[in-house]
Amino acid sequence: MKLPMSLAVAGPAARVELPSLAAAAGLVVLRVGAVLLRPWPLALAVDHAFGPAPAAGAPFAVLVLAGTGSVVLSAVIGVLDMASLRTVEGAAERIGAALRATMFQRTMTRSLRWHDRMRSGELVSRLTTDVGRLLDAVVAVTTSFLPDAVMLIGVLALLIAFDPELALVGLTVAPVLGVLAVRQRRRIRAAQQDARAEAGRLAGATTDLLRNVRAVQAFGRIDRAAAIFGSRNRAVLDVELRAVDVDARWTPMADIVLAIGAALVLVVGGRHVLAGALTVGQLLVILAYLRDLYSPVRGLTRLSVVLAKAGASAVRVREVLDCDEAVEDRPDARPAPRLRSGIRFERVTFGYEPGRPVLDRFDLDITAGETVCLLGPSGIGKSTALLLLLRLYDVDAGRILLDGVDIRDCDQRSLRDRLAFVPQDPWLLDATIAQNIAFGNQNATRVGVVAAARAALVDEFAGRLPFGYDTPLGESGVRLSGGQRRRVALARAAVSPAPMVLLDEPTASLDPVSAAAVIEAIRTTTAHRTMLMVTHDRDLAAIADRVVTLDHQLAGRR
Ligand SMILES: Nc1ncnc2c1ncn2[C@@H]1O[C@H](COP(=O)(O)OP(=O)(O)OP(=O)(O)O)[C@@H](O)[C@H]1O
């Protein structure tokens, strides 16, 4: 079965499931066959039990036969329904899971520049709701398009076989329906695109507000948060109502056109019965078929709504899948050197926005084993220098050398294996303390994690938590204090075998006792390693071999 264009986005994931979808389609076609047989028991009863010439001496037997036939047909239709639904829904869910996994993988590897622009709520909405709408379309195409089309052709063929004139009468409404359907589909698709875009904005704003619920409450700005949410929510409501209106208008239009067709058939068919060209039973079968025609036509129009929704979602899913903004490994990328000689920033220029450099021809040399501290005013670009060394962003000009090798020539994974990073905001996951620490080293053992925790003074507070190292920390480590979070982040660096440690303001906003504890932890965890740290803390800077002060002249010659 060929997938419609709007589903092409699920292509590779959908291809694996094609056999299941084909099996489901086969089952629904069989079901159509059974549905087409459904009016016949009634015709049998009307023509042979009550008609002018009832079957010789056995009208009762005919009625029993017709009743039994109806029950058997209904049972067959029910079983085929169940089997096809199970097959197609299972296949659709597997396609959805694969598509979500591909999208997630894609987002994880896109550049931070892209993430800086894309709100996380918007991404979640694309990964969940938009993928869900694509799945609805997969199910609808299999369970509705094919059977409805077969049903339509079957009913028309039967009508033509019965009475070609009646078939022609029934068909007169088809072109009208066709024109209406095409126009409507365009409108629905446009309305759905607006609706999805607004829904994405609502998801983005909601995630932002939820993440900052502490700020909202602390500043007593629930009203302001409610206003931000409310305006987005209203915008979604408005576009959704417009979309509902566009959808709803279609149903009566289709129904009226179809009813006109049925009325024409009743009048012309009735005349054929009066003229003796058709039995009453046959006219009833034809009218039943016409009713059956309603269901595929309605089904196909519903399908066009589902496809229009899926089409709008497909665009949003494709934007994620097709985005090529990434810090890519070169085809001939090599493993990063082991840091035997040192690091060199050579005339590095970088800006987050074009034409606005944060670092401008920035030079820095760090010898292996050395501890260098970057000092300088806020916003000068100290953290940016660390992010560039991690290659979370690529430099715009100049280069960063690791043992003389440009880091852009190194395979990213091995480069990051050489660097243990303790960011300013500790970046903790909603996991246990032990899992958060083990995040620093994919081969970390429990013993290694506990040793790192001890070195980073995590054991001082972990023992007081309900499940010790296995205590879940909540979203972004919310159950820990700022100082405790920093120590967990340090333990991550401690468990990492990386030869170089990057620290970004590890003692910021800590009281003197906690700061002293963290400095002590840093001394223990970074002994014998190369270290580049950013700090405003003079006590911490004092443990460095060398202090480099960035000023506007050095960093950004702006
Ligand atoms: N993701 C981003 N997108 C756009 N601009 C950014 C981004 N991150 C930082 N900047 C800008 O880059 C400049 C340098 O930021 P950076 O975080 O490197 O400063 P810093 O020296 O570490 O400051 P602080 O001491 O306050 O941490 C700042 O002017 C900041 O506004």
UniProtKB/TrEMBL annotation:
Give the domain of life.
Answer: Bacteria
ABC transmembrane type-1 domain residues: 22-309
Checking Pfam families in the record gives: ABC_membrane, ABC_tran
Q: Which SMART domains match?
A: AAA (SM00382)
Q: Does the keyword Cytoplasm apply?
A: no
Q: Which UniProt keywords apply?
A: ATP-binding, Membrane, Nucleotide-binding, Transmembrane, Transmembrane helix
What GO molecular-function term can you cite, just one?
ATP binding
The record lists the membrane-crossing segments as: 21-40, 60-80, 134-160, 166-182, 250-267
> What subcellular compartments does it reside in?
Cell membrane
Stated name of the protein: ATP-binding cassette subfamily B protein
Source organism of the structure:
Kribbella pratensis
